[in-house]
Amino acid sequence: QVQLVESGGGLVQAGGSLRLSCAASGRTDGRYAMGWFRQAPGKERELVTGISWSGSEPYYADSVKGRFTISRDNAKNTVYLQMNSLKPEDTAVYYCAYGVKIWNPDYWGQGTQVTVSS
Question: With b meaning 16 or more CB within 10 Å and e meaning fewer, what string describes 1-20?
Fold first, then answer.
């Protein structure tokens, strides 16, 4: 089993920045991908960004390209999401994800709320 604990959500004005963190613990001995999904009220959960064990060629949804940056520290089993130039449409619960293929995660975090006011 793997446990994921997110932190860093909150309320920010449009144009502002937030940094999310997700620490993995438990059976983290494999070379797994990590990433972030989000779910806004009334919408389906969507993949925002994902990063492989090596960190090469991270994936970004078109809606966040150029504004969000994902990174990871394998020594700390932690993934980060730097979110800049936030927009009201970025408002959602953000979920950390962990798995062999990030599009189909094996484990989820509990979610952290990000609210962007206009």
Answer: ebebebebbeebeeeeebeb
Neighbours of 53 (CB within 10 A): 12
- Determine how many CB atoms are found less than 10 A away from the CB of residue 101: 10
For residue 112, the 8-state DSSP code is E
Report the side by side order of strands in the sheet with 78-83: 2-7, 18-26, 78-83, 68-73
CA dist., res. 56 & res. 11, Å (int): 31
Residues 64, 85 contacting (CB under 8 angstroms): no
The DSSP-derived string for 81-110 is: EEE-S--GGG-EEEEEEEESSTTS-SEE--
Largest CA distance in the chain: 42
Structure tokens at 90: 């970025």
For 33-48, what is each residue's pLDDT tens digit? 999 999 999 999 999 9
Q: Quick one: pLDDT at residue 15?
A: 98
pLDDT band at 28 (very low <50, low <70, confident <90, very high): confident
